[in-house]
Amino acid sequence: HQPSGEGQVKVIKVLKRQALHIMRYLLLPVVGAIATHHSVHAFQAAPPRRRSPLFASSDGDADGAAPTAESILDELHRSELTFRIVVIGNGAILETTSKLGPVCKSSVSPKSGERLLTFANEDQSFEFHVKVEQVSKIAFVANQRHVARFLGDDGAPICSLILADSSNGAEEWFDALVEKHGGEVQL
User: Could you tell me the end-to-end alpha-carbon distance of the chain, in angstroms, rounded to an integer?
Assistant: First the structure.
């Protein structure tokens, strides 16, 4: 039994997204590393980027794909704003204030096989890794504080990004982000 009409369109969209994921996270980093430096360490030497073709637009792809954790994180990165980054782990809480970048790279963990999105400062003395496949929901709060909360399947917090820049321009940018995506994005 083959799907027809609307069902066929949905199948095509799913296949396109799967092909994009394969290219984004498996093929392009390897091809880029080989072409640039003939080395697996090419990303460490690569100049910082402002906008990467590796990420789908957070508006969704041209085929109407929904936003992803990667695309929203990339949008936060491209803002070049400073965030208070809060990560709650088992028995510890890490907080720091930093821009998301300028270095931003996608990779696969050699230990777990999970996709990672890494933000780092120029000398990479500070790195922030997000296991993007574990993010199932992003909740935006825009009242006294402007916060993007990244949550796992069980609703447990993965991390929170609190806008540290209190200028009118930064707050207007965040408010526009909330208006664009709504109060929460289910992934």
Answer: 29
